[in-house]
Every structure is written in structure tokens, then in C-alpha cells.
Queue: 3 jobs
Job 1
Amino acid sequence: MAKKSVASLQKGGGKEFTKVIISARSEKTGAYTFKESMVHNDKVKEAIASATK
């Protein structure tokens, strides 16, 4: 399924987006969780800053 989503992003305006993966450690269990999102290139720094707060 990942191949299909990546291929469709290459055709149109997909080059304007970046996949952001943010890891966070759970205080309860100590396990790491990952949050993935597609963000416009202009908003990458804002997305990372808001996730690290």
C-alpha cells in the first residue's frame, strides 16, 4: 500500500509535501510510539515544533 501512495504523490503536486515521523516515549510503559503525517514543505518546522512541546 505504501508504494501506491508514494507513486501517486510523484505525479502531481506531491513533491510539495514531506513525510514527517515523530517519535515519542510513553511515560506509562516506556515504549516508543511514532506519529506519521504528510506536511507541506513550508510547514515542516512548525509541525516538528508543535509536536515536541
Job 2
Amino acid sequence: MSNSEFDIIFRGDIVFGHQLAEVKLKLQQLFKVDAAKIDALFTGRPVPLKRNLDEATANKYRDVLLKAGAMVEVCSSDKSPANAPAKPVAPVRSQPVVPVAPAYAAWTLAPIGADLLPASERPAKPAVVAVDTSGLSLRPAEGNLVDNTEVQHELEAVVIAPDLGLAAVGEDLIGADEKLELPLVEIELEDWGIAEAGSDLLSAEERPVVVPIAVANSDFGLAPAGSDLGQLKANIKPVTPDISKLRLAE
């Protein structure tokens, strides 16, 4: 196991796809400091976030910071850019600005379709699975792809109807032996006749006897129109309102 020590260096860059405000907020939550101290990290100069860590711990910190959106790098502590002596900066007013060649001047443009990753950084290809196709064959485009032995046949219901047939229109559907014969009632109609319209169809001995009820009406009389026939009146107490404080307006 290596005994080397490593530093976590941050230069103010963020991971592509992250927003600067969100990255600053996540760093503030990770380090539990105020926003001013987080803003001081985004100066463009290399700032050591963690020093003298073993390799496993340094990689763990790097993964956490990358997930938060901060682009950091793991450097050996003895070669950390934060330990390099600061170079004196010449005054801007007395020295002209000298253009600096960009670091990507030696870059080239890859051809269309070229793989931009070297062989060591490419993901491993999945293992090829060998499939035995010796028992497979190609059938013609027409026909059923399933053999008759593989087809599940449905059982057909067998209905036996040997004595059924189709009767003609208007034919009696009940046979002579299936009909229920009712006994005939003999009615003598020799003494029957047709009565005149409005005649009483009952004879005198067939009529019911109604006994009249005797009602004594000796004390009955006819009252004149508008007379009080003695209906019960509701017992309503008349209300006498106090009108002593009322007066007629002019």
C-alpha cells in the first residue's frame, strides 16, 4: 500500500451541466461555511480543499465533490500547485499586456466517426454469447408456423337431436298425443232468449231483498239561507293593540 499523501485542488471550474449557483450552495452545505468563503474559492487560482490525505480518502473526497458539481483534481502533496511559491505580479500600468498562447494550441481535429477515447479508457465490451442455431430452420412465408402436434384443439360439443325437424309455417307444433283433451260441458240453450234493451235480467225471486230503514224526521227542518248551523268556533282571544303612541302624519 502506498504511503504517499495527496491534496484535493480546486480551481473554480464546475462540472458541465451544473449551474454555478447550485454548485456554490452544495459546497456551502458540504463544508458548512458561509457564502462569502465559498465565493473566495472561485478566483481561478488553485485552492487546496483537503491536504495530506491517503489515496483512498482523496478519491472519496473527489467523487463527492464531483457529484456536487465542483471540478477538482487529486495531486501529490509534494507536487501540489498550491505549494508552489507565488510569482511577483508586475503592475498592469507599467507593463503592456502580453498575449498568452492557449493550452489547446497543439490540439487537432479528429476525423468524423473516430473514437475519442484511448483503448485504456474505453469500457469493456460485453462477452459474446454463442447461440446454438443448428436446430433452427426457415419455413416458407405462407402457412402456419406451428405444427399440428403443437396446436391446442378445442373440444367440440356433440348435440344429439335425432327427432328434431323443421315444421312448416302455420303447422301445429303439438302432436295429437300431446294435446290435453278437456271434457265438453253440455249446456241446454233451448229456453234461452234475447232480452230487450234496458230490460232487467234478474227475475223477481233472483233479486236481493233490501229492508228499508225507518228514520223519524218529525223534528227536522230546513234553515234559511245564511243561517248558523251550529258549527264549532275556535276559541281565539282578541288582541287589543296599544295605539296610544301612534299619531297621524300631516
Job 3
Amino acid sequence: MNVEQIIKTEKEIPLQSRTIIHLLLVNNKVSEAMTACLKPFEVSPQQFNVLRILRGQNGKPANLSTLNDRMVTKMSNTTRLVDKLILKQLVDRKVCPSNRRKVEITITSKGLEELKKMDNAVITIEKEILKNVSTTELEELNRLLNKF
């Protein structure tokens, strides 16, 4: 991906700026692919992220703070994400019996079933996105990204 060609400039962009633009372009490409991949399931990438977090709780409930802390994309509207997943019957929300101010959120069995289907679609799109990058290159890329 040649940054100058993509943004249609003949002027050479300084290395630091080119790097940031490159990261933004790659982020957009990945975001668009993930959104398209999840569209048939009628969930957003953020909703998918919530479902994966809840599955990782292994049956233990999570609260909104836990979800927000673990989200890949930090958002202030986690409540709205959960509300949409409740409407789709993918998660449940209950008031904690011992602390009525605490809300507990769990993934439903339907949520787990749908998430398995989504996982397969995501694995396929991840392979497609990364098809031109070797395992060694991915390891190096991750090592470099860790520096951020």
C-alpha cells in the first residue's frame, strides 16, 4: 500500500507522517472488513467485542465497568451496546441480589451459539486481511506495535 498513491499526492510525505497515515489507512481497512463480516449477524464490531468478553467470563457475570475496561475500543455508550444485545436475546442483565446498585451481565446460550458462527466468519476475514503477511512478519509487526 503506497500512502502517496492512496491519498493522491505527488509530494513525498515525511516518514513520521507517512507512518501515522499508514496506520490510519490500515485501521480503516480492517474496520471496514470486520464491519462487513459481522453485518450478516446484525452486530457491530463493538457488540461482537462485548460478546467475546462475556464468553471469556466463563459463566461469571460482568458489570458495565468490566466490559468498558476490557473493550478494544473504549466507549462511553457500553450501556446502549448491552441494551441492543439484550433486544437480540444474546445477553441477559440482572440486578445483583446482594447489591441492588450493581448490574450483572451474562451471555445467553443463544449468544454463545451466534458467537461461534461469528467466530468462523471473523477467522475467515482475518486470514483474508493478513494473506500477504507471513507468520514471521506478523510476529515482527506485533513486536513493533508493542512499542507504541
